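Fig. S4 source data, part A: sequence.
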Amino acid sequence: MAEFETLKFERKDNIAIVTVNRPKAMNALNSQVLDELRGAFHEIAQDEGIRAVILTGEGKAFVAGADIAEMSKLNAVEARAFAKKGHAVMNFIENIEKPVIAAVNGFALGGGCELAMACDIRIASEKAKFGQPEVGLGLIPGFGGNLRLPRLVGDGMAKYLIYSADMIDAAEAYRIGLVQKVAAPEELLEAAEKVASTIASKAPIAVSLAKNVVNNGNNMDMKSASAYEVNSFSVIFDSEDMKEGTTAFLEKRAAEWKNK
């Protein structure tokens, strides 16, 4: 793994833990953080030994937003490049074949909320706060917030949160479906690791293919999505893991996955 200035990387068996590490700036997303996130997840994507990823933040924030100090100096052309960079990173994380769990330890605002939404699963500390505050700064979400938030919580709730710039706590985020689990602050990483370990114990190729079908199927009409799922379901029958999984089930033993 490459050396990073704004991230910490840890590996526990087949789980990677990526921590945004700019606590003095509340882990704000500047160009360097975005570049390093892309680099870290690119390396994770190439490592067949990693089966799940946890993304979290150092200190009191998950990610408190994009770096306003950097953004305030941009002109329209530079802002377009910055937004494209943010979209590229979020899209890469969303579409990496391995499942990504956001362990939201504190503020997940603006770009931080967008980063959490790019992950597959969100587990929040009881102290976590979520929001898209951009309109209060004369901006709009620029890293996918206008797109992912409606898909997760519905149009009406997404419009309320974006238009009002309201900040919600973990309990409300759970109620509206933005997060899937809430944990005590001291138990957050343990809860995320438990979910990651559960997922990592399943057939890697099946998890990867299921993620692919969910992500791509959401952008298709039902007829096309059904055909896509049928094709993906049939393709996996040629995999070693499918044969191993069904054989292990019939033999009443634990499966030994080969990711093929």
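Fig. S4 source data, part B ends here. The mean pLDDT is 96.
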